[in-house]
């Protein structure tokens, strides 16, 4: 592919002015009018803003719950709340802040800003953004609403069994957490898949990895972390819910289970989660700080390396939440060493930011003020983290308020403060207005001192032995004044946060219109008019540096005049550029979907699948699952075309294929990363099996499963056919021949593999022992993926019959091949794990 | 894609090695560990293998660097980080009790 020339040629039908181009693009990208538009939009600006407002709303809910906790703890033996209510309040405070505020808030900022930063017209899968938003809104509202009838989760945000087993938590409170939060995680996984594909493929021409904005690097790392950290907890939730619902004894020691398995699965998610929250904030700091210091980021490469290191190292820390569970010293030492090591890349970033300030000429605008608040707070939180990484200290401080104070220093200092800075910094892009009312400065001076008064005191109470998660305490232990001071500080902080929200709302509503790029930033999101138009960027620029607007101050006008790629919408549809992963060379033209209510309807159906079991409406859940399947097929069916379009004019003399006419369309990339999450989930299941086999009490089980002959024969034949069939079908499509033999072979393979798995189900009772329950789950994994592969094969057959495939339009066949390969490979591994112990016993 | 692999493989290999050694240590303290087989030499060998793997990856990156100066520098820094991480985080196999 020839790279685009530097001088803009005049390839559009008419050389457009900025206004003419705007008028041509706006009707194509605009949302539907009025109320309907809320439910049919999939534009990143609309979805991001709805996400942001919802997440801010849940921050308020979490904040009110925090104030209730501090009101209760302000005095000893308080009668403000009883223990039952207190348990729900502190559980929901943690749950809301972690799952309903922190993650969705940075996802919202990402959906809003990422396309602009990368020079793209939208995210890679706009309908997936909308689906994620609605899943989040419905799930989060349900979980929060459970507070009203007193049915909210009440076992702590980490839901440890056996406290959460049916014996000790017989109500539906725990089920609301397990099903509701798992449902909300659908939203996080959706967002992660599309963020990865967007960053890797949907960028401006010439935007190589080295020229990518620093926030894009951070959010790429975070998205991969979500895909690999969330699956263990989703698996844990599945195990606990099946134990509660079906009596499969994964966590019951008398039948071969082990409660510690939950802790492993939860913290395999829970510790990376801390960095999943911190890294987007660090990305914002690395974006905002250089602009505030009127320079560029010092040590860009080092910061990228530190972010990647931090992300991977964070997966080696999970046991540091389990130092008091009786793990041998060597195991403790591994995780203590890893926990101290993680301070190094954190420090690299801190020093890079300090160096950036040192090199530049900082100005003390409001975003900068919040970043200084971050420095003052996060460094303290990091140091107390190093203290807790040292095992003997952790043994003393574990489960005390010292840990509560540490995590609030890290999460509020390391996440909330930088995100407030980001909201103020990007306010012109979101609203088109310049801040006029100055409540934000007052709010800062209430929040930051209020925070330190509160949580320095909480540290102290913890060191004096006050335990966390206890609803009250007795007088005379020396904690009274400390708790009173902490509570007073917390209310000051809360007033400050309320003022921040008021300040943002008032400025968004009535401040004066601002000019483009008021901070003088160098990245592309500031190249658009303010607020960001529905199409984000009028034409896609050719980027030659890390700070395109700094390199070419006229770039914004040239983009607006349509002097980049894909300027004039001659084909009257939403289009954006797909580039090479490493060098950013233009490769394809992606066609983006128009407005549709499909994501909203599918989110509604998905919510019934997850939430109907709460009221024992299993038949409704089954019907809804079929509806989700039908809607998903409809979703996919609307893509593609019945004719080959051939090379498309992208401007600058560049002719590119449509993304539907390449072997690796965006859907193929999305499948690769969704399968990354899937294989992590499968790996977590194998880990759980190995853990129980190795250390759980009451093992070995009464008997191991003998493989026999039929099961392995079916499985091996099925896996081979499932792997070969789609290849034959794809090859046939590539040669304009009928793919039916390959498709039939693959369908037979899926059926045979499922038959092999069914022999496992037939042989064991899953309620007898954790071993049997695990075998059922392994076989269930195979049956689920064989069924998915079969549905995809039938779908591919229908697409071929209707003319949607050709030698150029081979992408769908390759996607089906990917999923079939996955089903075959993990199926064989799962069955080997099920049969090998019996074969050797 | 190869630059993405250069950037991601060394630390991913560290994570895999770290998990394997932790699993091995758990296994060595379980009922499945063969009678008479000393755990520490096995764990020490695993540590040496993990470090050797990291050294090999670093050497491969030095021999086949990315054409992009940015990806070359960052991938080398990450490979060095992974090597140091393998040395530091698995060092307990040499200095602490195995199953106590």
From TrEMBL, chain A:
<feature type="transmembrane region" description="Helical">
    <location>
        <begin position="274"/>
        <end position="293"/>
    </location>
</feature>
<feature type="transmembrane region" description="Helical">
    <location>
        <begin position="481"/>
        <end position="506"/>
    </location>
</feature>
<dbReference type="InterPro" id="IPR036927">
    <property type="entry name" value="Cyt_c_oxase-like_su1_sf"/>
</dbReference>
<comment type="similarity">
    <text>Belongs to the heme-copper respiratory oxidase family.</text>
</comment>
<feature type="transmembrane region" description="Helical">
    <location>
        <begin position="597"/>
        <end position="615"/>
    </location>
</feature>
<keyword id="KW-0679">Respiratory chain</keyword>
<feature type="transmembrane region" description="Helical">
    <location>
        <begin position="47"/>
        <end position="69"/>
    </location>
</feature>
<keyword id="KW-0479">Metal-binding</keyword>
<feature type="transmembrane region" description="Helical">
    <location>
        <begin position="89"/>
        <end position="118"/>
    </location>
</feature>
<feature type="transmembrane region" description="Helical">
    <location>
        <begin position="439"/>
        <end position="461"/>
    </location>
</feature>
<keyword id="KW-0813">Transport</keyword>
<dbReference type="InterPro" id="IPR023615">
    <property type="entry name" value="Cyt_c_Oxase_su1_BS"/>
</dbReference>
<keyword id="KW-0408">Iron</keyword>
<feature type="transmembrane region" description="Helical">
    <location>
        <begin position="672"/>
        <end position="696"/>
    </location>
</feature>
<feature type="transmembrane region" description="Helical">
    <location>
        <begin position="818"/>
        <end position="836"/>
    </location>
</feature>
<comment type="pathway">
    <text>Energy metabolism; oxidative phosphorylation.</text>
</comment>
<keyword id="KW-1133">Transmembrane helix</keyword>
<protein>
    <recommendedName>
        <fullName>cytochrome-c oxidase</fullName>
        <ecNumber>7.1.1.9</ecNumber>
    </recommendedName>
</protein>
<feature type="transmembrane region" description="Helical">
    <location>
        <begin position="369"/>
        <end position="391"/>
    </location>
</feature>
<keyword id="KW-0349">Heme</keyword>
<keyword id="KW-1278">Translocase</keyword>
<feature type="transmembrane region" description="Helical">
    <location>
        <begin position="130"/>
        <end position="152"/>
    </location>
</feature>
From TrEMBL, chain B:
<feature type="transmembrane region" description="Helical">
    <location>
        <begin position="42"/>
        <end position="62"/>
    </location>
</feature>
<keyword id="KW-0472">Membrane</keyword>
<protein>
    <submittedName>
        <fullName>Uncharacterized protein</fullName>
    </submittedName>
</protein>
<keyword id="KW-0812">Transmembrane</keyword>
<feature type="transmembrane region" description="Helical">
    <location>
        <begin position="74"/>
        <end position="95"/>
    </location>
</feature>
<keyword id="KW-1133">Transmembrane helix</keyword>
